[in-house]
Amino acid sequence: MSKVIKGGMVCTADRTWKADVLIEGEKIVRIGEDLVGDEYIDAEGAYVIPGGIDPHTHLEMPFMGTTAAETFETGTWAAAVGGTTMIVDFCLPGADGSIKNAINEWHRKSAPQICSDIGYHMAITGWNENVFDEMKDAVDMGVNSFKHFMAYKGALMIEDDEMFASFKRCAELGALPMVHAENGDLVAELQQKYFDQGITGPEGHAYSRPPELEGEAANRAITIADTAGVPLYIVHVSCEQTHEAIRRARQKGMRVYGEPLIQFLTLDEGEYFNKDWDHAARRVMSPPFRNKQHQDSLWAGLQAGSLQVVATDHAAFSTEQKRAGRNDFRIIPNGSNGLEERLAVLWTEGVETGRLTPNEFVAATSTNVAKILNIYPQKGAIVEGADADIVVWDPKITKTISPANHHSILDYNVFEGFEVTAQSRYTLSRGEVIWAWGQNSQPQPGRGKFVPRPAFAAPNVALSKYKELTSPKMIKRDPMNIPAGI
Ligand code: DUC
Ligand code: ZN
Ligand code: ZN
Ligand code: ZN
């Protein structure tokens, strides 16, 4: 059974033109005029874009004494509604510290639930011989990127020497290191200081994580990556300082990538001063939302190409879960939503306002992600031979975002009240229509597939070389336990 997406404007990262798209099975087989097939999908008046890829989600992640409420099923269903056909989720090691076991655990949880495709990043939360060895297993298992937390002291935070060892390992494996850039030592100090001053509410979260501490960590990570001779991906870039660090590094010829979040582009720090505690706490995430000056810098980075992708860091905790931090902002589970809203909000606030072209929108939501994470052109492209992950993107459907009409499991939505001016008319995942506007039927859980991401071409370094140079040490960390006041 072939399908033709008919009458739309194909819009890729490079250009926009009127064409039909012929799909056979799971693949795009032809792009051209007046194509014929067994079935037709109406794209008149709409753009035909590569399915969104969200490079940063935390579904069902055990974190800060609880587990993120969004499941792999509800998350990928919400994603499909929003025009996202693939997510890259963060694997955290469990109590045994094993990378291999963590990846298998993520497969166990995600495989029966996912409605569309998935990849993983692996978190490196400590350093020892086993981590060194298992990083190779991860790459062999199709996980070619490793995240390092420079914050969450006493739980996930990694020290500079460990990060350097891990970055060197990435260099020899052809893997991409990533960082959560915040100076965790200073964040912990500031948290204690504000708490001791009697600031116990969500505003303390914003005060204790100033942009300077993010910029410092970003610069440090860039220096470490440069010394290790490896590219670097900085997740959730929230502020001008981090953007500037990335811009400078790129100007020097380094491959440093920056990922602003849709939340950071459109929501500001004023949210933490809302009189309604629940409202403010629902928006507590790290790094926190910033002011307009920082937002302007992020938009400029997307326009100029010094920032490449827009993600969500979707880590959804219910109001009830957030209330664990009722008397102490330090234990409010960190995270906010956006998986379903990312494309529509970026379109409305970016393309409709003239800040981004439709092609830049496609690059930031899909194509650049696929390139940076080494799955292009299987994903992120409308070309013959690519997976038919395609969205018929209708710039005339308007919607007011609300928990009443969203598909996330959450009981609130940080974008509530946003009027968006575009939606997915049809979302296709490997040739199958998994969302049709107005029908609201859920795709089959378990139909999604894990997408292995191969290693990048690596310099030819003997695998044993750094094993002698790096001093393995065992530091026990427990992501479930972030003690207050450290
Ligand atoms: N930040 C969050 O807000 N949530 C999950 C992890 C992170 O780094
Ligand atoms: Zn330290
Ligand atoms: Zn992070
Ligand atoms: Zn994250």
From TrEMBL:
Keywords: Hydrolase, Metal-binding. Pfam families: Amidohydro_1. It is an enzyme of class 3 (hydrolase). Residues 47-415 form the Amidohydrolase-related domain. It comes from the Bacteria. InterPro entries: Amidohydro-rel, Hydantoinase/dihydroPyrase, Metal-dep_hydrolase_composite, Metal_Hydrolase, Metallo-dep_Hydrolases_sf. The keyword Oxidoreductase does not apply. One of its GO terms (molecular function) is dihydropyrimidinase activity. Its EC number is 3.5.2.2. Its cofactor is Zn(2+). The keyword Metal-binding applies. Belongs to the metallo-dependent hydrolases superfamily. Hydantoinase/dihydropyrimidinase family. This is Dihydropyrimidinase. It comes from Pseudosulfitobacter koreensis. The lineage of its organism: Bacteria, Pseudomonadati, Pseudomonadota, Alphaproteobacteria, Rhodobacterales.
